[in-house]
């Protein structure tokens, strides 16, 4: 391998594949390598055999689950927000031609011991048990305020300054009860904890508007999901990269990140071969543990527990929905962080007929992670099969400009891809030296 590349990308997670696709379109000469024999890295979707090989090496899948090829089980549960940043990247790059999307049927929140649907229409809001009659009126005024807000028109501000006043101030102005604040902050703004309440209100305002505009786009829920699983996303960007001349190597061990005497990146060694490039981008797993490499650190609240559960029925209390997100706000279960449940089914071509895949996840707060997701597991009904993982969330210590080594962040506990896209923008700017600018178009969703 004598030729030199502009960029070598290590790992085929979604972040890395988006970057290699975008860099190839930009005219960069990209080599993309992965130690696994499948796309997706930590964000892969596995068939039954791969799933059991990963979690239970000595056990074959039970015959009661049907055919291997019917399965594409996500390792990390995330949905796509219809009006969000990932949608903009999918549309900007035109990789939507390789993908089909389906709506997630419903968004639910756990409150006072029961699951309630997050209202998606005015009629649902009127009937919703989440708020009493007077509270519904107050909430209506709050949402009208958000929808009518115009930065340049002070008449729409009602005396509020989104950049100075906290979200607590805004809630109090509209007299919203703690339960309503919980539901808005966690089920709509999708915050993992309550830290946002004491900070300036603008980010929360933007998140709520994103949620409501995504809900309005396709109805039912603000989320869309690719048929055949999330593993289709990195593959679509890999195709994009290949069209623009990117080279892919799967099942390729990465033995060494080669640097010169000044510690600057030179190339990547696999076996006896070394490939040279000007820059390297990779997921944290290619750069050793934080103590070894000195290039990574675990973020605060840096462990996520996830349980992949195979069910033979829809989740009770969700109107037999074929796909749902359920959020258990931390206050409801005396925790610091929310618990998430994401469920998909054969409707999304990710499992056999009459099977449902539910993933329960949260940020770890104790030394008994599996016990922490018990409130979520209890909502599922009988569980046919369960696979539990606990993983650290890594972030790079340096920005990579000094040594040309650019490390992406691990997948966090959020239930959507917005933070992944933040990372794409961040790494792009460090690697290319300018902002990533996206075009606007629409995404087609099948009913």
Q: Let me know the largest β-sheet.
A: 7 strands, mixed
> Within the CATH hierarchy, at the fold level, what is the topology of the largest domain?
FAD/NAD(P)-binding domain
Poorly predicted runs of 5 or more residues: none
Helicity level: 25-40%
Beta-strand percent range? 15-25%
Global geometry:
globular
Using the 3D structure, state the CATH architecture of the largest domain: 3-Layer(bba) Sandwich
Whole-number total of structural domains: 3
CATH level 1 class label of the largest domain: Alpha Beta
Structural class, by secondary structure, is: alpha/beta
Distance between the termini: 48 Å
Fold and architecture overview:
It contains 13 helices and 19 strands. With 447 residues, it is of the alpha/beta class. The chain has 3 domains: 4-56 and 229-298 and 394-432, FAD/NAD(P)-binding domain (3-Layer(bba) Sandwich); 80-105 and 300-393, Guanine Nucleotide Dissociation Inhibitor, domain 2; 119-218, Guanine Nucleotide Dissociation Inhibitor, domain 1, CATH 1.10.405.10. Strands 1, 2, 10, 11, 12, 13 and 19 form a 7-stranded mixed β-sheet that branches. The protein has a 7-stranded mixed β-sheet with strand order 8-7-15-16-17-14-18. Helix 1 links the parallel strand 1 and strand 2. The relative contact order is 0.20. The model has no long low-confidence stretch (mean pLDDT 92).
How are the elements arranged and paired?
Elements: E1 4-10, H1 14-25, E2 30-33, E3 45-46, H2 48-55, E4 73-74, E5 80-81, H3 85-93, E6 101-103, E7 106-111, E8 114-117, H4 122-127, H5 133-148, H6 167-173, H7 178-188, H8 202-218, E9 223-226, H9 232-243, E10 247-249, E11 256-259, E12 265-270, E13 273-282, H10 290-293, E14 296-311, E15 324-328, E16 339-345, E17 356-363, H11 369-372, H12 374-378, E18 385-396, E19 405-407, H13 418-432
């Amino acid at each position: 391998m004598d030729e030199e590349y502009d960029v070598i990308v290590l790992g085929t997670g979604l972040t890395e594949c988006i970057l290699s696709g975008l860099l190839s379109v930009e005219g960069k000469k990209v080599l993309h390598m992965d130690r696994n024999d499948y796309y997706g890295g930590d964000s892969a979707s596995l068939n039954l055999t791969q799933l059991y090989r990963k979690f239970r090496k000595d056990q074959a899948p039970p015959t009661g689950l049907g055919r291997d090829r019917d399965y594409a089980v996500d390792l990390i549960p995330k949905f796509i927000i219809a009006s969000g940043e990932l949608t903009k990247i999918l549309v900007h790059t035109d990789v939507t031609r390789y993908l089909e999307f389906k709506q997630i049927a419903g968004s639910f929140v756990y409150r006072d011991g029961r699951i309630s649907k997050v209202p998606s229409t005015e009629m649902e809001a009127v009937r919703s048990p989440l708020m009493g009659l007077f509270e519904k009126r107050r909430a209506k005024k709050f949402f009208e305020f958000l929808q009518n807000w115009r930065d340049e028109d002070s008449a729409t501000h009602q005396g509020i300054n989104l950049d100075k006043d906290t979200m607590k101030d805004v809630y109090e102005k509209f007299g919203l009860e703690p339960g309503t604040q919980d539901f808005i902050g966690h089920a709509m703004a999708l915050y993992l904890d309550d830290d946002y309440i004491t900070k300036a209100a603008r980010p929360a305002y933007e998140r709520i508007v994103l949620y409501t505009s995504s809900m309005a786009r396709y109805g039912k829920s603000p989320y869309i999901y690719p048929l055949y699983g999330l593993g289709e996303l990195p593959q679509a960007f890999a195709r994009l990269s290949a069209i623009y001349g990117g080279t892919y190597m799967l099942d390729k061990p990465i033995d060494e990140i080669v640097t010169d005497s000044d510690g600057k990146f030179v190339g990547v060694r696999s076996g006896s071969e070394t490939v040279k490039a000007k820059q390297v981008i990779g997921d944290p797993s290619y750069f050793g543990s934080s103590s070894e490499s000195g290039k990574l650190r675990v973020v605060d609240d840096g462990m996520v527990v996830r349980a992949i559960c195979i069910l033979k029925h829809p989740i009770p209390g969700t109107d037999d929905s074929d796909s749902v997100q359920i959020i258990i706000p931390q206050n409801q279960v005396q925790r610091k962080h929310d618990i998430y449940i994401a469920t998909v089914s054969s409707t999304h071509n990710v499992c056999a007929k009459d099977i449902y895949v539910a993933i329960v996840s949260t940020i770890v707060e104790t030394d008994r992670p599996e016990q922490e997701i018990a409130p979520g597991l209890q909502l599922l009904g009988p569980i046919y099969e369960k696979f539990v993982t606990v993983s650290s969330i890594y972030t790079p210590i340096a920005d990579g400009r000094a040594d040309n080594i650019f490390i992406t962040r691990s997948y966090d506990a959020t239930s959507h891809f917005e933070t992944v896209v933040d990372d794409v923008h961040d790494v792009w700017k460090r690697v290319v030296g300018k902002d990533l600018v996206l075009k606007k178009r629409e995404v087609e969703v099948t009913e």
